[in-house]
Amino acid sequence: MEYRKLGESGLTVSEIALGSWLTFGSSVDQESTTATVRKAWDLGINFFDTADVYARGDGERALGNALQGFDRKDYVLASKCFFPMSDNPNDRGLSRKHIMESIDQSLRRLQTDYLDLYQCHRFDPETPVLETARAMDDLCKQGKILYWGVSCWTGRQIQELSQLCREHNLTPPISNQPPYSMFNPGIEEEVIPASEKNGLGQVVFSPLAQGVLTGKYQVDQEPPEGSRAKDPERNQFMLKYMGREHLQAAYELAEIARDLEIPPASLALAWCLRKKNVASVIVGATRPEQLVENARASGFQIPPDRLEKIQAILAKLPPVE
After folding, report:
1. How far apart are CA 38 and CA 52, in angstroms?
2. Is the pLDDT of residue 231 over 90?
3. Which residues fall within 8 angstroms of residue 57, CB to CB, at 6 or more apart?
4. Mean pLDDT across the stretch 202-226?
5. pLDDT tens digits for 105-160?
6. Active-site residue flag, 241
C-alpha cells in the first residue's frame, strides 16, 4: 500500500480507503464488517470513511464496533453530515445547530473522541457558507475534528468557500469527496483545478462505477444472482451505467486489464489514482477478499500506450448525469 498527503495538509492517507455506503450496517452484518475492516488493515489501508446518514446511523455504529481494538492514532476516520436524520426541520443541512449536534452523535456511534476528517456531505443553499465554515473552525479548535472537507461541491463553490476562509482567518477545508471513475470523469474540468488552486485533495467515491467496471456485467446478459444490479434497493445508482455502450466499454477495458495481468477493478482504480490531486479512492466491500484486488491498484502505473487505448474507449461514451 502506498500513501499520499490529503490536499496541502500534513494528513497521510492510504491510496485505497474503505467506505461503508450500502454495506456496513445494512447489507453486511457485524461479523463480516469486522472481518472486512481487519482485512483492510492487514493490506495497509489506514483510511475509513462513513457518514451519519448511512443506514441512519447504523453504518457508523457498525464501523465503530469493527474498529475497537485498534490504536486510535493508527487510523484515519472520516464521517459526514448534511442529509436529514429525522423529521426535525433542524436535523439536516449545514447550519451551526445541525453541525454541532451531528458531530456529537457521530462520535458516540463511532466510539471515539474525535474525527480526523469531517465533511459537508453536500452543499447547503439554505445556510450561509460563512456560518458553516465558522462552525467547522470551532470544531477544529475544540478538538472534536482535526480537519474538515466537503463532498460533491462544484469548483465555484470550493473557490468561494476557500476565499471566505482566507478572508476570515478560518481553518480551511482540505478535501472534496466527489464521484469519479472512468465512466464519470466530470471533476477533471472544474473541480480538480479549483481544488488544486485552493489546497484541497480529492477522496473519490464510486471509482468502479457502482461495480460495472469490475467486468462482472455483460452485454445482453442478465446480471449475476446476488450482484448489486439484481438488488432493487441498491442498484438505483448504477442503472445509468448498465446500457449497451457502457457495458461494451467495460468489456474492452477488462481486456486491457487482462493484458496487463491485473483485475479490471485494479485498472479502474489505478486510472483514478493517475491524477495527483486524487489522494484516495473509496471502495466498498461485502467480503474481505474483494479488498485484495482493490489494493493491487495502489502504486500501479498504467503504461502510456494502454492509457491511450483507455482514453480512446472512454471518448466514445455518452455523458452521464
Report:
1. 22
2. no
3. 25, 85, 105, 109
4. 83
5. 999 999 999 999 999 999 999 999 999 999 999 999 999 999 999 999 999 999 99
6. no
Task: Give pLDDT, residue 312.
Answer: 98
Give which of 308, 312, 184 is closest to 237, Cα–Cα.
184
Q: State yes or no: pLDDT of 223 exceeds 70.
A: no
- From start to end of 111-224, where are the E strands? 115-120, 145-150, 175-176, 201-204
Taken in order of first residue, the domains within the chain and their CATH numbers are: 3-208+272-287 (3.20.20.100)
Q: What pLDDT score was predicted for residue 230?
A: 45
Q: Please count the other Cβ atoms lying within 10 Å of the Cβ belonging to residue 71.
A: 6
**Nearest to residue 151, comparing CAs of 178, 179, 180?**
178
Q: Give me the catalytic one of 3, 54, 114, 180.
A: 54
Task: Tell me the HSE value of 241 on the side-chain side, using a 13 A CA sphere.
Answer: 28
- Number of Cβ within 10 Å of residue 72's Cβ equals 12
Contacts 24+ apart (CB under 8 A), 70-77: 70/41, 72/112, 72/113, 74/46, 75/41, 75/46, 75/47, 75/48, 76/11, 76/12, 76/13, 76/46, 76/47, 76/48, 76/116, 76/117, 77/48, 77/110, 77/112, 77/115, 77/116, 77/117
Q: Which amino acid is at 257?
A: A
Q: Are strands 12-14 and 3-5 parallel, antiparallel or unpaired?
A: antiparallel
Cβ-based neighbour number of residue 125 at 10 Å:
9
Cα–Cα distance list, 36 to 31, 61, 62, 106, 292 (Å)? 9, 15, 11, 21, 11
